[in-house]
């Protein structure tokens, strides 16, 4: 029976020291789209994770949906990220870059040159976007043409190659939380009647083609996929998510991806169904209600529900989280005031273990 502290191999070659993953968490401190020395320190502090998955990183200019988030679509960004990957590898860690195209979740105030957010259909999300000018209502996205969909897939491929050139061990494609890939999956945001929508097969096509194209470019062993079936984040409506997500996982299963990462929305039965369908490494960010994932969830590895557990908020407040989980704590509570923005505290400063 495996434990969270046993080593594991993901893909064919990635030897992880343990089965504790650091979940992707937006930081909003990448000014000009560039990560900094502070970013390198932040991730290096957490290199004892079996796997680090970075904050969401846009694969193209129009893919940005939040202020001060990093990209992987320019040479300057690749060079900046290289300092991060070098710092993590120097501590013995493994790190994947999460590629996150936010689609309709964004605002023209975040984009240059008159660009507007794009999506599968011209349907605005309910809610507001954070911008340097303050909160603003989401706008109606411009519907992607078939040629633009092909270019968006190419953008992901280029960003994945850039990630490898920047020293990342692999990439995670963000198909969760109401961003572009999930927008194609969900019937309320994808109202197309062409080959990219309509039927279940049409709605899963974009996700499948992005995954397959990236895996072809950098290797399936370096490619992971994150999903959040049934999640309502960012105005997603998936009243019956099972057919689409089972169809998607069946389509990508033969690719031999590095892993499938599921952010659970509360349906454990669907989680187990997807785990059964996916033949490779399974990472779970379990549904825990209002509290962060904690030591209580370690049993999910022991009972075979998942191969790895991903931790979010607890990793912010406890950079040495694997050690604290192994020794039973103590655990510092995450303070939301430290989460975002350049003037937030607690980014790299944290309470040390007691002597």
Commentary on this structure:
The structure is a single chain. This protein is α/β, with parallel strands linked by helices. 30% of the residues lie in helices and 15% in strands. The chain has 10 helices and 14 strands. The chain has helices at residues 37-45, 75-90, 146-165, 180-185, 200-218, 242-252, 268-277, 299-302, 313-317, 321-327; strands spanning 8-10, 14-16, 20-22, 51-57, 95-99, 118-119, 128-129, 136-137, 142-143, 170-175, 223-227, 259-263, 281-285, 308-311. The strands form 4 sheets. An 8-stranded parallel barrel has the order 3-4-5-10-11-12-13-14. Strands 1-2 form a two-stranded antiparallel ribbon. A two-stranded parallel ribbon has the order 6-9. Helix 2 (75-90) links the parallel strand 4 (51-57) and strand 5. Helix 5 runs parallel beside helix 6 (242-252) and helix 6 (242-252) packs parallel to helix 7 (268-277). The protein is globular. The relative contact order is 0.14. Residues 350-355 have low confidence and may be disordered.
């Amino acid at each position: 029976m495996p434990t969270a502290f046993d080593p594991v191999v993901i893909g064919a070659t990635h030897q992880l020291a343990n089965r504790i993953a650091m979940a992707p968490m937006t930081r909003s401190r990448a000014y000009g789209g560039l990560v900094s020395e502070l970013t390198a320190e932040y991730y290096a502090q957490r290199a004892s994770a079996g796997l680090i998955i970075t904050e969401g990183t846009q694969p193209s200019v129009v893919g940005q949906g939040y202020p001060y988030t990093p990209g992987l679509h320019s040479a300057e960004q690749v060079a900046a990220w290289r300092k991060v990957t070098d710092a993590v590898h120097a501590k013995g860690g493994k790190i994947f870059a999460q590629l996150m195209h936010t689609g309709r979740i964004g605002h023209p105030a975040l984009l240059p040159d008159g660009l507007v957010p794009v999506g599968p259909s011209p349907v605005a999300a309910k809610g507001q976007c954070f911008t340097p000018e303050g909160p603003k209502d989401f706008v109606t996205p411009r519907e992607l043409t078939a040629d633009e969909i092909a270019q968006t897939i190419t953008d992901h491929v280029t960003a994945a190659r850039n990630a490898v050139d920047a020293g990342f061990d692999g990439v995670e494609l963000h198909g969760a939380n109401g961003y572009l890939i999930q927008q194609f999956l969900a019937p309320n945001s994808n109202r197309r009647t062409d080959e990219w929508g309509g039927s279940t097969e049409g709605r899963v096509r974009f996700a499948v083609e992005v995954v397959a194209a990236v895996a072809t470019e950098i290797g399936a062993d370096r490619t992971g996929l994150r999903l959040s079936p049934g999640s309502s984040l960012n105005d997603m409506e998936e009243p019956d998510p099972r057919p689409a997500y089972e169809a998607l996982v069946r389509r990508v299963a033969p690719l031999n991806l590095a892993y499938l990462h599921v952010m659970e929305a509360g349906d454990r039965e669907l989680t187990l169904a997807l785990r059964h369908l996916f033949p490779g490494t399974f990472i779970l960010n379990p549904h825990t209600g209002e509290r962060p994932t904690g030591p209580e969830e370690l049993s999910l590895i022991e009972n075979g529900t998942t191969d790895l557990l991903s931790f979010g908020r607890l990793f912010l407040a406890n950079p040495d989280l694997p050690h604290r989980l192994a020794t039973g704590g103590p655990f510092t509570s995450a303070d939301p005031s430290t989460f975002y923005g350049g003037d937030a505290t607690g980014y790299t400063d944290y309470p040390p273990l007691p002597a």
